[in-house]
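Journal club prep, shared notes

We agreed each person brings one worked example of a sequence with its structure written out as tokens. Mine is Box C/D snoRNA protein 1. I'm keeping it raw so we can talk through how to read the token line rather than staring at a rendered picture. Sequence first:
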Amino acid sequence: CETCSKEEAKYRCPRCMKYSCSLLCVKKHKLLQSCNGIRDKTAFVSVNEFTDLNLLSDYRFLEDVGRTADAAARHPIVHSPSTKRLLYYLRNRARKCDIDLRTLPIGFTKRRENSTTYNDTEKKFYWHLKLVFPHCHAEYILKGVPDDKPLADILKPYIDPVESDPVVCQRLKMYTMSPQSDVQILMKIENRKQNSVRYNELDASRSLLDNLKGKVIIEYPTLFVVLKTLKNDMVVLGQ
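Then the structure, token by token:
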């Protein structure tokens, strides 16, 4: 068992492939690793490892997508003029800020979650933002983040040893104990092949708007906060 290291393992997590011995260890592993236990149906599988089971899984996945898309197309909100006007307005405003904002159909999780708004009086976006700390398996959702706020200020409540919340600070101890110069903020580049994932490195001293300019955003930005000294599989564009 990879949780207690005492008993013989009986179960394996479909999501992260960790071995567990009991229901208690399964629950503990999900809590510590922030793992939902659901198999990632879109995980990359190389041709050499591709089997009939992967083919069947892909076929069922496409069937599920077809059903979801059909149900979404029938949803009354899809045909609502106000919904269409709002999405068009957000995309148009983003385009004027040199941001390629793309929205998903009704039914997709990111479409339901997104709370991004644009204040016409202040001429600024208030973004729905997701922060991911992969070294601690932690994720946080922020709502109403003004686009003129520097990334360093956005991260302060999470990784600043003085200003961060005590509970969050304890969970992200690996980050709070590291020097600020070691912290790297990355954002995934959209529209690339699954086996060629690359990330843009963002400038923590600049505003959220400046960092998003010239980039493709699907619904809302997701920022990955990593430490340069720790090994990770995120390849920055140009490396």
